[in-house]
Amino acid sequence: MKEEMIVETEDLTKKYGAQTAVNQLNLGIKEGEIFGFLGPNGAGKTTTILMFLGLTEPTSGKAKVIGFDPARDPFKVKERVGYLPENVGFYDDMDARQNLRFISQLNRIPHEVSEKRIDYWLEMVGLAEESTKKVGTFSKGMRQRLGIAEVLIKEPKLIFLDEPTIGLDPDGTNRMLDLIHSLSREKKITIFLSSHLLDQVQRICDRVGIMIHGNLVAMGPIEELAKKKLGLNQQDYTLEEIYMKYFKEA
Ligand SMILES: Nc1ncnc2c1ncn2[C@@H]1O[C@H](COP(=O)(O)OP(=O)(O)OP(=O)(O)O)[C@@H](O)[C@H]1O
Ligand SMILES: [Mg+2]
Question: Residue 32, SS3?
């Protein structure tokens, strides 16, 4: 029997003029996994995520996200999945709780439910003490953590995180990675994250995909890619070694 995929693509392609940002992408994300989407700057990672959310239209091919085609039913997808963009935007003159309330209202979450969720997620991301500070005064790490809380307020079963640890200090990074891991293992949320921080990806991801110049050049569990690229005998490997091999061949 074919395994159930929560995200699936068929020759998904995006061109900007003569430039191909994403070239005939075929991938499947399994329910419950943490999938790391890797690749250098300009590889097409963000463009792919935007197509998954119906925020940009594919030039050809298609995607299916939790059973919907995001190009045809963007609202159905957006209602059900979470998305942390590369640059998270907030209302800077509102405090953290007010921002989360606003998002809850947009998502038509009943007030009693949303207040409980807001308390819970502010605590989970470590912002409970800062909940009445204006977001305009937040540091980069605080904004990133509030972004995660905002994504989770809807309690989606699938979330897309575009570079979730960018700009975080080492402690903030570790806490973010632990949080992402626990969302997957304890809350059973499927996580698709893009990154170029390979040691972080190696720490938490079940499978990875490597994009180079719009092409998916590898996909699988890290140990499988290690066997394939570094040879059967090598026990000690880093994702960085594997990645560099693919990168040099591309
Ligand atoms: N709106 C746009 N108009 C024209 N070209 C674009 C647009 N958005 C992206 N591109 C191009 O598509 C390619 C892929 O960009 P994308 O942002 O998807 O890369 P990325 O893998 O997310 O990179 P990074 O790691 O730097 O975030 C790049 O060459 C970029 O210049
Ligand atoms: Mg990007």
Answer: coil
